[in-house]
Amino acid sequence: MSERRVAVIGGGPGGLYAAALIGLACPDRQVTVYEHNADGQTFGFGVGLTASTLGSLDAADPVSAAAIRRAGHPGRGMDLRVGEGVVLDGADNIAIGRATLLSILRERALALGARIEDAHVEASDLDDALVIAADGVRSATREKLSAEFDARVEVDDALYLWAGADFALDRATFLPARTPDGVFVVHAYPYSPDRSTFLIETDDGTWRRAGLDVTDARTPEGASDEESLDRLSAVFGDILGGRRLLGNRTRWQRFATISCGRWSHGDVVLLGDAAHTAHYSIGSGTKLAMEDAISLAAALRDTSDDAAAAARYEQERRPRVERFQRIAGHSHVWWKAFPRRLDLPAPMLMTSFMTRAGNITADAFAAVHPEVVADAVGVLIGTRPTDEQARDPHTLGELVLAGRTAEPGPDTTVLATGPLDAWGPAGDAVVEQARGRTELWLDGEDDGREAVLARCALSERLRLDLGAVVGIDVPRAARADAVGALLAGRVDRVRFR
Ligand SMILES: Cc1cc2nc3c(=O)[nH]c(=O)nc-3n(C[C@H](O)[C@H](O)[C@H](O)COP(=O)(O)OP(=O)(O)OC[C@H]3O[C@@H](n4cnc5c(N)ncnc54)[C@H](O)[C@@H]3O)c2cc1C
Q: How far is the CA of 42 from the centre of ligand 1 (A)?
């Protein structure tokens, strides 16, 4: 075994970027990337990168960052097409074709001395000093050492399909389509002057009623589900302008949330989707994989002991990754219940969307788009404030909370709840417990942020499922969350304690 050889399993963004950055940081190490898909053949269409991710890439390697920026397609805000719709202008993110991103990273890795082999390998085949398993969400390395990595895989019951279209939308667009079988939702965004990603999701019941389980079963391994693409092209004919959706090994999938109690074992280190995933609705998988690569390469540069470097990498990355996984978890649950909110007035729905994951409060959203928040306040209280009033957190809070801070009344049923998945089985149980009640109040001993967000989500479900008037207890520190929950139609009343 050579002390300096590094093997990377997987030539996705995480593996290729790790190879490039290790070449840059440790020129004496020989890096080989093994990728079993032929050069240029990859799944998917475009991926989004935020300004903050681009900043990390600039700092780690200005050369590849500049190439990525050059090839990227600028974001131009978003368009939520529900009811009268809401358009937000301005964005500092970019999107880039996955194949383009990979070819930039591949060239950079080669220029920095890495070798890239078209080969399928397993960690046990390799005798390199260090094996970086960047072999994606279905990582065979993780699966074979599942107990050693303490790996957990949670597979969603909803379905999504990653398709494309041969034109550039003006901006990121979210659009539901009600069909006799149920609701399909598009998350679409342009990623080049003539291409857009069209990610389409639906629930398991709609999928089966539409017979897409049958078309899925007929689709050969490695092919696209052309029948589904035909059907969805018709469903989303308006936004597609009559064009047909494009496939690239496009078929229905269920999102797998991966987490691992340990990211390394012996000389094997997990990186990117192999170690962790975060729901696609926050568009952060590529970011997390590439930032993992930055951290691991820096740790390898700073210590000659690979085990110590792997430990430092995990210590540095785990809290950041887990934060994103928490945010993604809220976003995931929000999207699952999205079809239930289609009758909300558009400004409220947009406020609900922006505050869905808890990382952006209504105040923060109002600082950038006061016009939307002012419209949402107008819907809630009947009088639209000025944009200036909406932008000021104190005034916003006063307007929204006036008449909506209350105590549970004598006929109110009070339920103590902890942090739970409002739209999962635990939420189902609370709905059953509360059935028949028209006035509900949610309290609970836990006043942590996660518990408050879960209470808001459960309150929303009780409002939607039972038509009940629902109040919640929140700590004073969660005032901004309470304002957001009222503006998003999640709760009717709040009591501060
Ligand atoms: C629908 C959808 C939409 C997404 N949208 C976004 C987005 O907007 N923004 C974003 O940042 N991310 C997005 N992502 C996530 C993103 O695509 C992944 O998180 C990212 O690609 C992870 O990079 P990775 O390098 O860890 O793994 P991957 O990109 O999966 O790469 C793994 C590579 O390993 C190869 N491989 C696997 N096993 C072997 C083996 N044994 N031998 C050799 N090669 C092997 C595979 O062929 C593959 O090329 C999205 C994902 C999905 C599913």
A: 9
pLDDT in tens, 373-388: 999 999 999 999 999 9
Cβ atoms of 190 and 171 within 8 Å: the answer is yes
Q: State residue 39's pLDDT score.
A: 61
- What band does 38 get if pLDDT is binned at 50, 70 and 90? confident
The model's pLDDT over 258-286, given as tens digits with 9 standing for 90+, comes to 999 999 999 999 999 999 999 999 999 99
Pocket flag, ligand 1, residue 164 (CB < 6 Å): no
Check if 254 has its Cβ closer than 6 Å to any atom of ligand 1: no
Q: Average the pLDDT over 72-95 and give the result.
A: 91
Domains and CATH numbers, the chain: 5-42+57-70+97-151+257-332 (3.50.50.60), 159-240 (3.30.9.20), 344-496 (no CATH)
C-alpha of residue 119 to centroid of ligand 1, in Å? 17
- Residue of 286, 287, 291, 292 with the most ligand 1 atoms within 8 Å of its CB, for mutation: 286
Question: Measured between alpha carbons, how far is 315 from 295 in angstroms, rounded to an integer?
Answer: 10
**Ligand 1 centroid to 143 CA: how many Å?**
16
Which residue of 100, 103, 280 sits with most ligand 1 atoms within 8 Å of its CB, as the best mutation to test the pocket? 280
Ligand 1, residue 271: give the atom nearest the CA: 26
User: 3-class DSSP state for residue 163?
Assistant: strand
Given a cut of 60, is residue 40 above it in pLDDT? no
Residue 216's CB is within 10 A of a number of other CB atoms, namely 17
DSSP annotation string for 201-240: EE-HHHHHHTTHHHHHHHSPTTS--HHHHHHHHHHTHHHH
pLDDT digits (tens, 9 = 90+) for 407-452: 999 999 999 887 788 988 999 999 999 999 999 999 988 889 989 9
Sheet holding 195-202, edge to edge: 86-88, 78-80, 172-179, 182-192, 195-202, 159-165
Of all protein residues, whose CA lies closest to atom 42 belonging to ligand 1?
A: 120
Structure tokens at 32: 């080989």
Q: How far is the CA of 440 from the centre of ligand 1 (A)?
A: 44
The answer to whether the CB of 162 is under 6 A from ligand 1 is: yes
The string over 173-197, giving b where at least 16 C-beta atoms fall within 10 Å of a residue's C-beta and e elsewhere, is bbbbbeeebbbbbbbbbbbbeebbb
For residue 273, the CA-to-ligand 1 centroid distance in Å is 7
